[in-house]
Amino acid sequence: MNKIAAERDVSHWHYPEEVEVLTFDLNGETFALEAVLVREILDLLPETTVPGSQPFVAGVINFRGKVIPLADLRLAFGMEATETTSDSRIVVIELDLDGEPTLVGLRTDKVNEVTTLARASSEAPPRIGMRWRADYIRCLVRNGGEFIILPNLQAIFAARDDRALSA
Asked: Which pTM value belongs to this model?
């Protein structure tokens, strides 16, 4: 493999050799977020619907006295919305959106574990045959016989109405 091809192979990997992540489930798929983004994992909280907002970020919650948007990644990925269960959680993350640190709650079906993923097990999402937008996926990581999906949160939130996140 030539040097350019080798660099292209890992262009999807934005970390050192390994990255520590929090894994969680959405509609039977396993996703992961960089652990450094996670501020807290919460049981479900009462939410307030925001009229006129995008379905993806249709509500807000009170997090430690601050009103923050509550996003449902299932809807961003075109999945069916599901009923909450006793395993459902909200993962509060802090993202840099337009140069501003922004707290966002993410609905999950279940939070699994903190684990380490290696660059050697990662690959870019395929350009065709995906049921989701490829730009919404940073990379896929093989873990045993399954794939863990690292979403591209910057692309997901940039593609949405900024008013939905300015809570």
From this structure: 0.85
